[in-house]
Amino acid sequence: MPFGSLWLPVIVSAVVVFVASSVLHMVLKYHKADMKSLPNEEAVREALAKGNLAPGLYHTPYCADFKQMKDPAFMAKFEKGPVAMITILPKGAPILQKHLALWFGFSVLVSFVAAYVARHTLHPGDDGMLVMRITGTVAFAGYALSQMSDSIWKGQPWSNTARAFLDGTIYAVLTGLVFRLMWPSA
């Protein structure tokens, strides 16, 4: 089957996911719990501003070499706290259009990978549920499973990951459904 026959479901599923994510984030608003305000935010912002940090991911206390983990004075920093990963973004208001474009691009990529796997495992005219199962599973891996590493390695609360997991499940079902409806006939 030529891959060109799958470009339409790739784009349509990405658009459907994009719209669904907008609804989940703007209408249902259950992601409001994902972020919290810092107590004494202005003092923390002033302290960070004094460091004139470049955009990037920072860790405190910073461990450049795991040999430091044997040093009791260094380990005392972990015990005293705070232990944090801090993401510093570029100065200025967030450019929502950029983030939305990147999100749409990611959605196209997930749908493209789902189409790639489907092209190599399925045939034109295959059962719709089989098409949905294959493409939905690949989309699930891209949208939902990818979120777990942030809780494992970056300390993101598991409740945030659970909400993202729910979103990813919805996006996967929608992706699978689009491919099912648009799968080429025999």
Description:
With 186 residues, the protein is mainly α. The chain has a domain of 123 residues. Helix content is 61%, strand content 5%. It has 7 helices and 2 strands. It has a two-stranded antiparallel sheet with strand order 1-2. It is elongated and about 70 Å long. The mean pLDDT is 94.
Q: In a nutshell, what does this entry contain?
A:
This protein has helices spanning 7-28, 41-50, 72-80, 96-121, 128-143, 148-153, 158-182, and strands spanning 56-60, 84-88. It is mainly alpha-helical and 186 residues long.
Task: Give a quick set of tags describing it.
elongated; 186 residues; 61% helix; mainly alpha; 7 helices; two-stranded antiparallel sheet; 2 strands
What is the fold's blueprint, element by element?
Layout: H1 7-28, H2 41-50, E1 56-60, H3 72-80, E2 84-88, H4 96-121, H5 128-143, H6 148-153, H7 158-182
Antiparallel strand pairs: 1-2
Helix pairs in contact: 1-4, 1-7, 4-5, 5-7
Helicity range of the residues?
Answer: 55-70%
Which class of secondary structure composition applies to the elements?
A: mainly alpha
Strand fraction band? 5-15%
User: How many strands appear in the DSSP assignment?
Assistant: 2
Order of helices and strands: HHEHEHHHH
Low-confidence region ranges:
none
Mean pLDDT: 94
What's the helix count?
Answer: 7
